[in-house]
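Justification of computing resources. Each target in the renewal requires a structure prediction run like the one illustrated here; the chain below, 97 residues long, is used simply to show the kind of job we budget for.
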Amino acid sequence: MVLRIRWSWCAVWLLVGQAGVVEGARFVVHGLSVSGGRLVTMHREGRAGDAYLGVAFSEPDLVLILRSAGVPAPALVVDDPSWVEWRGAAAHRWGNR
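Resulting structure tokens:
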């Protein structure tokens, strides 16, 4: 498996709380790109702009991105709309399917 993930460590560091859990953040999984990946960004209330976290090409990629951003149980929150918003394509849709 090849992971194509680009991190914005500065943005993640600034948005992660002292306990290592993202506070007041909402993650957005954007629509499918031409390459089949989905952009993942983090939005925080009261902050201008979203932090670019990476591109996920599968569910394990998304879980890895969320874990790196400080989400305590990323596999359990991907279906929780208070944590993750799916845009532009159905949830859990990857690649050219």
